[in-house]
Amino acid sequence: MDASPAAVARTLASGRLPGMAHVKGYFCPLRVRHATGSDGSPLLLVHDRSHLAEALVPEDGGTDTGAVLSIDHPSHGRLWLSGWATRLDGIAARAAALEFAEVNPVSDLLGIGEGHSIYRLDLAEVRLAHGDSLVEVDVDEYLDAEPMVLPAQR
């Protein structure tokens, strides 16, 4: 594959592969459904009564929580998207749910605000590992990249 690291990262983050959330202060990674909005920001779909929702509660009156979304692909490596997760409400949550549904149409999106929440991950770092190499991808390059079409997994 001759795609740029930013395009590979954007492809892996699109939401078609399982993701794991690693949350500051929480002892283990947690499975999360995710998608990428049109602006490239990762969106996380979280059940309100889950360990992940508990882990994402901001400390001491804050509005966001440090988190990493990791995604693995057998051929393209492992992606880490690091930043701050912010719970979206109202119109922003509905708009994010529509963007999420374009990529990963799951029925729990109908429960946004009623048992499920959607979080936006504001990115600080993007890293892509493949084999022995680790590449730091510029966040702006990642956000500007076009995702590739991956062949169907068997």
Structure in a nutshell:
With 154 residues, this protein is of the alpha+beta class.
Helices, strands, pairings?
Layout lengths: L4 H8 L6 E5 L6 E7 L5 E6 L3 H5 L9 E9 L3 E12 L1 H14 L12 E15 L2 E5 L1 H6 L10
Antiparallel strand pairs: 1-2, 1-4, 2-3, 3-6, 4-5, 5-6, 6-7
Task: Note the main attributes of this structure.
six-stranded antiparallel beta barrel; alpha+beta; about 20% helix; Pnp Oxidase, Chain A; 4 helices; about 150 residues
* Count of individual domains: 1
Structural class: alpha+beta
User: In percent, how helical is the residue content?
Assistant: 10-25%
CATH topology, by name, is Pnp Oxidase, Chain A
Give the integer mean of the pLDDT values. Answer: 92
Terminus-to-terminus distance: 19 Å
- Outline: globular
CATH architecture designation: Roll
Assembly level: single chain
Beta fraction: 35-45%
Number of strands: 7
Q: Could you characterize the architecture of this molecule?
A:
This protein has about 150 residues and is α+β, with helices and mostly antiparallel strands. The chain has one domain (about 5-145): Electron Transport, Fmn-binding Protein, Chain A (Pnp Oxidase, Chain A, Roll). Helix content is about 20%, strand content about 40%. It has 4 helices and 7 strands. It has helices at about 5-10, 50-55, 90-105, 140-145; strands at about 20-25, 30-35, 40-45, 65-75, 75-90, 115-130, 135. A 6-stranded antiparallel barrel has the order 1-2-3-6-5-4. The longest helix is centred in the middle third of the chain and has 14 residues, at about 90-105. The protein is globular. The model has no long low-confidence stretch (mean pLDDT about 90).
